[in-house]
Amino acid sequence: MKKCDYCAKEISYHDQYCCEDCERKTVEFHQRSERYSKMFLIVNTICVFGIPVGLFLASFSTAVGIPIAAASCMVLGLMLILLPFPTEGMIKKHKLQKAIKISRIFGGVVIGLGFAIIGLVFVLKR
Ligand SMILES: [Zn+2]
Fold first, then answer.
1. What residue numbers bound the domain in which 121 lies?
2. pLDDT tens-digit profile of 83-115?
3. What is the pLDDT of residue 126?
């Protein structure tokens, strides 16, 4: 049993995709990921680094640390929604369409985390 590389629909052994649309979307995804991969990597690294650094600084000064941590979460989350580039392992496991969806959901969760960090400050200040 073989599955479409994009939508995971069952297909015959001779094919790679179930339809032209899936093939086109896969090609477009790879073009986009090639074009933006460097930017993605840079933003990703800064934000993944910024969250713990911000939280660490927050233990000394919430006014400095919290904005860094919250902004890192939101930028990272926003980027994952706009540029959902799942890892190779995720694509292999879930096929492209679902892997992209998971990346977007994860992006939303990370943005939520950013809001939670800000919310926490207001709770703690009381
Ligand atoms: Zn398909």
1. 2-125
2. 999 999 999 999 999 999 999 999 999 999 999
3. 66
- The percentage of residues in the chain with a pLDDT greater than 70, rounded to a whole number, is 99
Ligand 1 geometric centre to CA of 23 (Å): 7
CA of 97 to the centre of ligand 1 (A): 9
Query: Cα(16) to centroid of ligand 1, in Å?
Result: 9
pTM of this structure: 0.88
Our CA angle for 86, 90, 95, nearest 5°, is 95
Domain count, the chain: 1
CA–centroid distance, 9 to ligand 1, in Å, is: 6
* 2, containing H or E segment: strand 2-3
Predicted pLDDT of residue 30? 96
